[in-house]
């Protein structure tokens, strides 16, 4: 995670305006301005994923895990993130679960993954 002091330090070191560094840090979903949770669920919102139901996947995780997109649960167990595109259009809708790309997701399958993290304290998706 990148805190604001670090962004200013980088900008100074590269002789760039802080706004340029901030723009890069907020464009890529792999960078975060807040600490991430123990587990991360990144839902691809690219065109192929979106038309195959990515918005429904986000809503499903928000409702099930009680976390808003772009945020981390209060207990620090899960961060839900939307990405512009993860480049996995052929397996849409795709999500990245703790760094592993998983395609063909449905509301039921994504709840299964998240449930394993939240209810069982598992380090792996169900």
CATH architecture of the largest domain: 3-Layer(aba) Sandwich
Mass-distribution shape: globular
How many separate domains make up the residues? 2
The CATH superfamily label of the largest domain reads Glutaredoxin
In helices, the fraction of residues equals 40-55%
Number of strands: 5
Q: Mean of the pLDDT scores? A: 93
Strand composition percent: 15-25%
Largest sheet: 5 strands, mixed
Distance between the termini: 26 Å
Indicate the CATH topology of the largest domain.
Glutaredoxin
Low-confidence stretches: none
Radius of gyration: 16 Å
The computed structural class is alpha+beta
CATH class of the largest domain equals: Alpha Beta
Instruction: Tell me the strand order in the biggest sheet.
Output: 2-3-1-4-5
